[in-house]
Amino acid sequence: MTKPDSRSDLPRHQREARFLQALAHPARLAIVDLLARGERCGCEIDPYLGLDQSTVSRHLQILRRAGVLKARKDGVRVIYAVRSAAVTRLRDQLARLITQQAREELAQLGGGEPGASS
Q1: Can you give the pTM of this predicted structure?
Q2: Which residues pair with residue 34 across a beta bridge?
Q3: What is the CATH number of the domain that holds 38?
Q4: What is the end-to-end Cα distance of the chain in Å, rounded?
Q5: Burial of 35 (0-12, 13-18, 19+ CB in 10 A)
Q6: What does 4-38 look like in DSSP terms, one character per residue?
Q7: Neighbours of 32 (CB within 10 A)
């Protein structure tokens, strides 16, 4: 039996890790959630998050570099959008996973089975 060469997948794993790291911040997840509803000017994102413009710009840059978001110029404005609907599906899947885990943890604390009603 031959051992699989794990190094062959290293570049893919590095890209995946960079993508997931870009999402691994509450403000960046909030940006993705907002942009999943439609493209927005960067100037609309600042007040939504309640963060200063330079902080939001840094988060947007991280998301763009990782390939989560795309941007286009509209005069002096920069319009941001989620690059792919797959990102939105990933967020939805993550929300379902977190909800399921919370239910299972609550069921364990209560001594019941997940999904069982009291």
Answers
A1: 0.79
A2: none
A3: 1.10.10.10
A4: 51
A5: buried
A6: P-GGGGHHHHHHHHHHHHHH-SHHHHHHHHHHTT-
A7: 19
Nearest to 35 by CA among 96, 91, 75, 74: 91
Q: Is residue 10 part of a domain?
A: no
At 49, which amino acid appears?
L
Confirm if 22 and 61 have CB atoms less than 8 A apart: no
* The total number of structural domains that make up the chain: 1
Q: What pLDDT is attached to residue 3? A: 57
C-alpha–C-alpha distance, residues 118 and 116, integer Å: 7
Instruction: Identify the pLDDT of residue 110.
Output: 82
Residue 57 lies in a domain: yes
Distances (CA, A) of 117 to 69, 108, 114: 41, 13, 9
CB 49 within 8 A of CB 30: yes
